[in-house]
Structure formats: C-alpha cells, structure tokens
Design goal:
CATH topology of the largest domain in chain C: Rossmann fold
Shape of chain C: globular
Oligomer: heterotrimer
Number of domains of chain B: 2
Chains: A alpha/beta (about 180), B alpha+beta (about 230), C alpha/beta (about 625)
Helix content of chain C: 40-55%
Strand order of the largest sheet of chain B: 2-1-5-3-4
Largest sheet of chain C: 6 strands, mixed
Helix content of chain B: 10-25%
Largest interface: B-C, 40 and 42 residues
CATH class of the largest domain in chain B: Alpha Beta
Strand order of the largest sheet of chain C: 5-11-10-14-12-13
Number of strands of chain B: 10
Structural class of chain B: alpha+beta
Largest sheet of chain B: 5 strands, mixed
Chain lengths: ~180, ~230, ~625
C-alpha cells in the first residue's frame, strides 16, 4: 500500500440507527492508518451531501423504508464502483423490517389516528417528507451489492477486517469472533 | 474386523449399521447439520449434511456407511451449496438475530457463521407468523422455525405425548401443537419434556431465562460449531 | 361462516359411521378424512375431536395429515367447491377468463369463500382432462369442456343451490378419445384369461409347479407356476410405465425374495395417482380397461405371493371410484378375486381402492405408500426400498396402471411375444396422452420407437414449436429433434405429450410448470421447499418485466441446487422445464428481460401507493421512477 492515489469512500445511513457508523469509529486510531489509503467523500463524517461520480467504495448502513432511502441508494450505486452493505438493517432489513408483517395503512392509522392522545391527528403530507414503502427491504433487493459486513452493529474490528482485506485485494473474510449477526 | 471409508481423504472407521454422519462424528469430523440429533432417528430433511458419495450427493445422516466409500464433505462446491441452503432458511422465516434470545446458542446461526454466510442473498419472504405465549413457562416463536421436526420426534418418541407435528404442505408447512385451540398452554407440555430442550433455533424458549447467560459468553461465542463435534 | 351449521352430535355420528366403515383403522386416515369431508363439506374441529377419541390418534397427527392434502379443508369452504384445472393446456383453452367470469357472476374472489358460504372458487393442478378441457372439479367431481355457456349454466345452478346430483349429466361426461389402439387398447382379452394362462405356465425346465403353496403362505416356491410367471415378465423385458422405467421383473423378484418376518405379508400396489400434468392415459385404462389392470395386479400377486392389493387412485378421478368398485365386485363374484381364485387352493387376493386427495408428490412410490398408511405424503429416505420395506414396512411392489395392464397381456401371450414388439431396449407399446395444439387430442398407443414427428402427424399438429414429453418433469423437444423416438433409450416418458404451436410463449409454458412444482412441493426438504418458491418468484419477476441477466444467472444456480440437493424426484426434476426451455428457446426468455445489470423484484413506485393514498400526495417526490439502463437510457 504505497503512495497510490487514495480510494474515495462514501458512507451513509438509510433506515438505520447510525450504530454501524459509531462502530466504524470504534476502529479508533486505526482510522489514521486507513486515511493513508482512503479519503472520505459523501459521509456523515464529512458532511458532504452528494457523492462524487468517481467514488471507489460506498458503505451503506440501514435498509430501505422510504422513497428517499431508495434515491440515496441509487445515487450510491451510480457513483461507487463497489457497494458494501454494513450491518443487519442493510443486510436483512433489521429492526425497521419488524413492521413487515403489518399493513402500512394499519401502521399509519395507528400511529397518527387511533393511538390514545392523538385527537385530530393527521397523517403528515408535506412533500418534504419521504413517503414510506409498503415494506422495509434489505438493500440487496433493490441494487446489486458487492460485499456485506454482518452484525448489529458489526464490531469495529469486523469493519476494519473487511476494509483492509479489500484494500489488500483479498476476498473479505470474517472468522470466528468477528462474524456476528447480532 | 474394522471397516472403513474415506472422508475427504481421511480414513474413517465405522460399525455395521452406522451412518456416514455417525461415523464421522465419532471420528471427530464435523459435518454441518440442523435436523440431525444423535439421540433421534435421522430425518434427512434439512439437507445441510449433504455429502458426495462416489460422486453423488446424498444426506450423510441417513446414508449408511459402506466399506470403501469415497465421501467428500468439506469442499468448496458442497460448502457453497450448504451456504445456499442456510440462506434459504434465513429468508424463509423471520430470523432477526439481534432480538433473539437464542443468539449465540443457535445452531442455524452458528452453522451460517461456519459456512461464512455474509448475507441472506435471496429476497426475504417476510412471512406473517404469530407468537404463542400461552404457556406459563415456554414461549413459542414460530418466526424462527426451520421445520427440522426435532421437537416432533422428541415429544413423540421420548415424551410419548405428540405435542408437536408438522402440518400444511410445501412452503406453507408449519409447526402445530396438540390442542383444539392451537395454543401450547392448552397442551400437556411441560418444561421437563425432552421436546423443551431440542430446538436448534429460537422457537421453543424457556421464559425468564433468555439472558441468564450473557451474549458473548454463549456456546458458540466460546468455540465455533465445528469445534463442538463430539468425537473431538 | 354461514356454512351448513352442523351439530357436534351430527358430526360425531358421521365420523363414527365413516370410521367403522374403515374398520377403525388409523392407516386409513386419508380415506376417513375424505369421507368426512364429503359429508360435512370440510373437516370441522368437532370431527377431529371425535376421531381423536375413537381412533386414539393424537390431534396433531390428524391435523398434520389433513393439512398436507390440497383437497382437505380445515377451514370452512363453500358448499360448492369449484376448482379450475390449471395445467398449461387449460390456460391455452382459456380457463383464466372462465374463472374470472364465474367469480364475477357469483361475487366471489378466487381463493376465497363467498360471504354466504355458498361457493368457493380456486385453481388446482392438472385434473387429467387435457384432451377435453378446460376442466374443473366441483366437490371433487370432474367437469369437462368448459365454455362460456357452460360456466353461465354452472353459475345459475350454484346460485339456485341445485344439488350436484341434479346437474346435467353431460357436464360430467368424460370421453376416452382413443385415437390409435395397439396390442393393449385393442386387446380382446376376457376377464380371467390371463390368470388361467398364468396358472398353466410351468417352468421352462418342466418341473411340476407348486402354485398353491406359494400363494397361500406368501412364499416364493422357487420352482412352480409363480416363478414361471415371473420368468415371463423378465423375458418380456417389461419396464415400468410410470416414467422411471425400472425393470418390472427385477422389482417383482426382489419383492418375492424379500424375507418376511412373522405376521408379515407381501403387497401389490397399483399407482393410479396420475398427477403429471398432461397425462390422462390411466384415466382411460381405468375407465374402459379396468379388468386388464386388475387382472395384471392379480397376476403380480400370484407371481410374488401377495394376498392384498391397493389401487391408489388420484382424488381428481373420484368419479371412477364407484364404477371401479363395481368391476371389483364382479370379479369377486366371478372368483377372479377373493379366496381360491380360479380354483387355485390358497389363491387368495383382494384389492381395495384408496383415493388420493390432491398431492402430486404421492405419485412417488414411497410417498404413495405413506399416504396409503394414512400419513402425510412425504417421500421416505431410501434405501430401504419398498420391495423389502414398503406398506407397513412389508415387502411391496408399486407399479403403474399401464405396467399392470401390460403384465396381464404378457401372462396371456408370453414374454417372448411381448419382447418382440417395440425396440431392443424398450419392449412393448406405450400409450401417449396427446393434448395441446393439435386437431385430434386423445390417447395414442404405439410400439416403442415411434418418432415425435410421426405422433405429430397422426394427431394433426401444425406449426409445432415444441413438444413437452412426459410432462413438466420430462423433456421439452424442439423441432430439430422431432426425429427422436419414444423409448427408454432416447425419450423416456410416462405418457404426456403436450404440443405447442408457434403462437405459444415457451417462457410462459415453463412458468406454468414452475408454479406447478412450487404448489406440489411437499415441503419436507429445504432445497425443494424454498427453492421452488424462489424459482417461482424469479419466473414471475421475468414475467412482470423486471428480469435482468442477474436473475437469469440466479435461475440457473437454483436449478443446479435443486438437482443436487433435493430429497426426491420432484425437486430433482422441478428445474427441467426451465433448463430445457432456456437451452432451446432462449429468445423467449430474453423477450422478458431488461438489459439492466440488476432489477428489484418488486415495483418500487407501487410500493409507495398505500402511503400516497393515505397522505393524498401525488407530487413528484411521492413517486419513484424506474431507472433506465443500457442503450435506451
């Protein structure tokens, strides 16, 4: 890993809790080593709002629960050579997908109309707000995903292992202890 | 006289009537499996234990060992197929490990780890399955059922009760309990039943005990499933 | 549910009557459940209460069995239960429009029960009426030649609650449609001829026979007439007509030689679970040649030393039950069944008919045996095979209807005569069930070795694009292969011969077959249970215009997995129609594919529809437009 051009890495959190991003920061001082090889593009860490068209790696936390999630995911797919799904929600819908056995209409009714204390509640219809999808989907069901880092969240070590494997040009592998779905 | 067959090049002895799985286990060789349990008659349904015998795939838990057999198990090709089966089981039900009490003690999860399953790959079915909390001591979460029928066999063959059975067909196959109401609380099921102890996943859960062993200190946290093979 | 309300005591009365008719025998559970449903219109929980009490079988077992079969209902269904046959030929004959019409005029959604509990309408797998379709079942009775007029009449009859018995008889008329007869269909054999011929047979070395001892004690005599009969079957080189083509003589011999433990006996089972879509020749054999079939079974019983036999008849052929029982009764009266058959002391054999209940997988011999034992029709782990461990763990042969009919002819005319017909590797004749795009659909009997082209010519097929031989689990033959021949050495077949002309979309044909396998998978093993569903979803994805080369690769991978990992033949062959059509009709698939690398399986914009409706929004941000890829971007 010599003075090659740094890889551009973009990250985002869709229907997630940012826990995976927090875990990412758990790689601690190894971030400095990482930064010798990569630079961050669009990411909550940089506050850059849009992906550059030539990103090398996109890391996605969270699944798809609304229209905006779909737009952001598509933007990442279009601009990143490699997409990585990070964490349970991106990989299988995770906690947000626990609503999938319910009808969306029932959910909206209950949340905005029928729950106690919601007199005259209305369902928000501001065009600024993204509309929810019928069901929450893992991201591999909507665009092609190249790699996955399981975990809720994946440990900093797991994230480090996958990224360094990739930087070394190896197929990422998580052995016992790093591989976790919870 | 001892008879033998070869398993991934290793010579494995066996006794008359033993299956490939039994002989391999005794010799300390792990073959992934979910519906197989040494105390029960093999079922051969999960197909995770599929091996190649003389070039043909077959379930090792039901296949009798024969002298001179050439068995392949731990190969790239077979493990890829096993991984795909595991992924099928994950998308067929609702397996949400972060909220499951069985996480860390779950054979499905540990087998998926063993096979390097990084994602469920297929599109999820997200079936709608109810939870049965009617029994005072045991919770049934059907979302995680993989239809291995170990509880069916345990209740029928050991407990003599027939508390559980499979009903439905095809993708609609599902676990039922022995009560007109369909609720476990209305059966004669007790914690002392063998059937309460055999679920490889998180369907049959003892209430109020879920986290008595903390996450991180559980069976497969300590050692991967392959290292738990009996003969080792 | 406004179903005919039944008092628990009335239900109990029905159950008791049915149970005693079936000798209080839990192995007859499938028959017991069927008769309960025929009386109650469904299987109410009270019936299960009573069964549990009278048979001493746990509720879980009863519900497990009832839940397995498509024709058993643990939830109330309509008093008129309409099932449209949904084979690809029914589709070609317009069954979907007819179903919509009937649903529309009776105000009921497909798959649901009408609010008044009067009627339920749904689809079912091929009912075996492809030569006179579209077909349907009403309360499991077959109706043929559906048309708009007939559908309207049926709607009227149901609305007026006319009992099924009073419906016009022509609705239920089933034609044989025999177009070409050979040794079997043209046989003039009289009941008893084959048995008498078998009795006279002596071993080729001329030693005296000991028939009676063999039959009475269920033991192979080794020397006598039964052994000689078996020799004829072997000499005839008869192979199973159910598709797999196992040598019949070897099967019978293995069963005959299987040791019996105390109290055990041997069994003869006739597999009339003709479920392969597009096959209907057993229907004709059992309608007009039942004596030949029963005689063949009796010959088999004589050869292997069996005293009990079963005919396992598919539930779709429920209408044949009474006529077949009449034939059995006559044969008993004529001393061709029962005790001391045709005067052979100890020559005891009788046949009982069991009906299936809508499960294709029961055509697999070990699943069939499970079903005969009153269980879920799950294929067993093999070995051991049925010839040693079959019905109730006792030696059993299971053969196809046509195999037994052929065995009767062999008993009469000898093995050498039979072996001289057909080809070297495929002796005798094969009955084909011809349907689809041709002028004369029906039954055609040919000596083995006939070319696909010849059959097409004989039945008046024009502009043929493809022929599916032996149904979805068989092979799809393209025009370049029309000179291939029917026979075990080239195209083996259970008998289906379904013709598609140039107007048909072969992708849709394959998709129909994939739906069939998904519906019929027994659910026992992971690869078939989940794999057939995944395959169905992928084919539907292509059908919906969302397919991409990625999905295509996925389909191929799934097929591989089904083939290598499945528990039984259903899973192994579930991918055949797709693999074959991909290989031979690839453009039909490409028409359904978008050129994007990857497409989601669901319509993203439609996934917002509920939220749009709830919020009343329709602004641009309330939509997700389809991304355009490739050249037309």
């Amino acid at each position: 890993m010599t003075a090659k051009k740094k890889l551009k890495v973009a990250t985002t959190s869709l229907a997630g809790c940012f826990g995976c991003h927090m875990s990412f920061l758990d790689i601690d001082e190894r971030l400095f080593t990482l930064l010798e090889h990569i630079e961050f593009d669009r990411s909550p860490l940089t506050d850059i709002k849009e992906c550059s068209p030539d990103c090398d790696i996109g890391i996605i936390e969270g699944g798809l629960c609304n229209a905006e999630n779909v737009h952001v995911l598509r933007e990442f797919r279009k601009n990143c050579k490699i997409l990585i799904a990070m964490g349970a929600c991106a990989i299988n819908g995770g906690l947000p997908a626990q609503r999938n056995h319910l009808q969306l209409t029932t959910i909206l009714e209950e949340v905005y109309h029928t729950s106690p204390g919601l007199a005259n509640g209305m369902i928000p219809n501001d065009p600024e707000l993204p509309l929810p999808l019928n069901k929450v989907h893992p991201i591999h069901e909507v665009v092609k995903i190249d790699y996955f880092i399981p975990g809720c969240p994946p440990s900093g070590d797991a994230i480090w292992k996958v990224l360094t494997d990739l930087l070394a040009g190896k197929e990422p592998e998580l052995g016992h202890g790093l591989m976790h779905y919870d | 006289m001892t008879q033998t067959f070869t398993l991934d090049g290793k010579t494995v002895p066996f006794e008359d009537g033993q299956t490939i799985m039994q002989a391999a286990t005794k010799a300390g060789v792990f073959i992934p499996h979910l519906c197989y349990h040494p105390e029960f008659k093999p079922h051969g349904s999960c197909k995770l234990c599929t091996v190649k015998v003389n070039g043909r795939q077959t379930a090792s838990c039901t296949m009798r060992a024969m002298p001179g057999m050439v068995v392949e198990s731990d190969t790239e090709e077979i493990n890829a197929e096993r991984r795909a089966l595991t992924q099928m089981l994950f998308v067929e039900g609702n397996h949400f490990c972060p909220s499951c009490e069985k996480s860390g003690n779950c054979q499905l999860q540990a087998t998926a780890y063993h096979l390097g399953m990084m994602s469920p790959h297929f599109d999820h079915f997200f079936p709608n399955r109810a939870v049965d909390a009617s029994h005072p001591e045991v919770l049934l979460d059907f979302n995680r059922c993989i239809l291995c029928s170990l509880c069916v066999r345990a209740s029928r063959d050991v407990d003599g009760k027939n508390v559980f059975a499979l009903s439905g067909r095809g993708i609609k196959t599902h676990l039922i309990v022995n009560a007109k109401s369909g609720r476990l609380g209305d059966t004669d099921f007790t914690l002392a039943d063998k059937a309460a102890q055999v679920c490889p996943v998180g369907v049959i859960l003892v209430k109020r005990k879920g986290f008595s062993v903390p996450i991180g200190e559980r069976t497969y946290d300590k050692a991967p499933i392959a290292a738990t093979v009996e003969g080792r | 549910m406004a179903l005919k309300e039944m008092h628990p005591e009335a239900v109990a009365g029905i159950v008791d009557r049915v149970v005693s008719r079936w000798r209080r025998d839990p192995t007859c559970m499938v028959q017991i459940l069927r008769e309960i449903q025929e009386a109650c219109d469904w299987i109410p929980p009270e019936a299960i209460d009573r069964l549990q009490a009278t048979l001493g079988v746990p509720r879980t077992k009863i519900e497990g069995v009832a839940g397995f079969y498509s024709f058993f209902y643990l939830q109330p269904r309509g008093r008129y239960r309409v099932l449209f046959s949904d084979n690809v030929t029914d589709r070609m004959q317009g069954n979907m429009a007819l179903m919509e019409r009937l649903c529309g005029s009776l105000w009921v959604e497909p798959g649901k029960v009408s609010e008044d509990g009067l009627v339920s309408i749904d689809k079912t797998s091929c009912t075996g009426m492809c030569d006179q379709g579209p077909g349907m079942l009403v309360n499991n009775l077959a109706i043929t030649r559906l048309s708009v007029e007939r559908i309207d009449q049926i709607a009227e009859l149901i609305r007026n609650e006319v009992p099924l018995l009073d419906w016009p008889a022509e609705f239920f008329a089933v034609e044989d449609n025999i177009r070409k007869a050979d040794i079997l269909l043209a046989s003039s054999m009289q009941p008893g001829d084959a048995l008498r011929a078998a009795r006279e047979r002596v071993p080729s070395d001329g030693l005296a026979a000991s028939n009676m001892r063999s039959w009475r004690e269920g033991l192979p005599s080794g020397l006598g007439g039964p052994a000689a009969m078996l020799d004829e079957i072997k000499r005839a080189n008869l192979r199973g007509r159910g598709g797999a083509g196992f040598t019949t003589g070897l099967k019978w011999e293995a069963c005959r030689n299987a040791p019996l433990k105390a109290g055990q006996q041997r069994f003869v089972v006739c597999n009339a679970d003709e479920g392969e879509p597009g096959t209907f020749k057993d229907r004709v054999l059992l309608t007009s040649y039942a004596d030949l079939v029963f005689e063949g079974m009796t010959v088999a019983a004589y050869a292997i030393g069996a005293r009990r036999g079963f005919l396992y008849l598919r539930g779709e052929y429920r209408y044949l039950l009474e006529p077949l029982n009449v034939v059995l009764e006559r044969r008993r009266k004529d001393n061709l069944l029962g005790t001391n058959i045709i005067g052979i002391p100890g020559g005891d054999f009788d046949i009982e008919i069991h009906l299936g209940a809508g499960a294709y997988v029961c055509g697999e011999e070990s699943a069939l045996i499970e079903s005969l034992e009153g269980k879920r029709g799950t294929p067993r782990n093999r070995p051991p095979f049925p010839v040693t461990n079959g019905y109730l763990d006792q030696p059993t042969i299971v053969n196809n209807v046509e195999t037994f009919a052929a065995a009767a002819l062999i008993a009469l005319n000898g093995g050498e005569w039979y072996a001289g017909i057909g080809t070297k590797h495929s002796a005798g004749t094969k009955i084909l069930s011809v349907s689809g795009d041709c002028e004369r659909p029906g039954i055609y009997e040919y000596p083995f070795g006939v070319s696909v082209r010849q059959v097409l010519e004989d039945c008046g097929a024009k502009d043929t694009q493809a022929v599916q031989v032996s149904g979805p689990s068989g092979i799809c033959v393209a025009p370049a292969e029309f000179d291939r021949v029917i026979g075990f050495e080239d195209i083996p077949t259970a008998g289906a011969f379904t013709i598609f002309d140039n107007s048909r979309d072969m992708f849709e044909v394959a998709r129909n077959y994939v739906h069939f396998f998904q519906h019929e998978s027994c659910g026992f093993c992971t690869p078939c249970r989940v794999g057939t569903s995944l395959l169905k979803n992928l084919m539907d994805k292509l059908h919906n215009g969302c397919g991409s080369p990625y999905d295509f690769a996925e389909i191929e991978k799934l097929n591989q997995l089904l083939q290598s990992m499945s528990h039984c033949g259903l899973g192994h062959t579930a991918c055949n129609p797709v693999l074959d059509t991909i290989e031979k009709f690839r453009p039909a698939y490409e028409k359904h594919m978008r050129q994007a690398d990857f497409e989601p399986a669901f319509d993203l914009d439609r996934a917002l529809a509920a939220a749009r409706q709830m919020t009343g929004r329709d602004d641009p941000a309330a939509h997700i437009i389809k991304e355009e890829f490739g050249e037309d971007a």
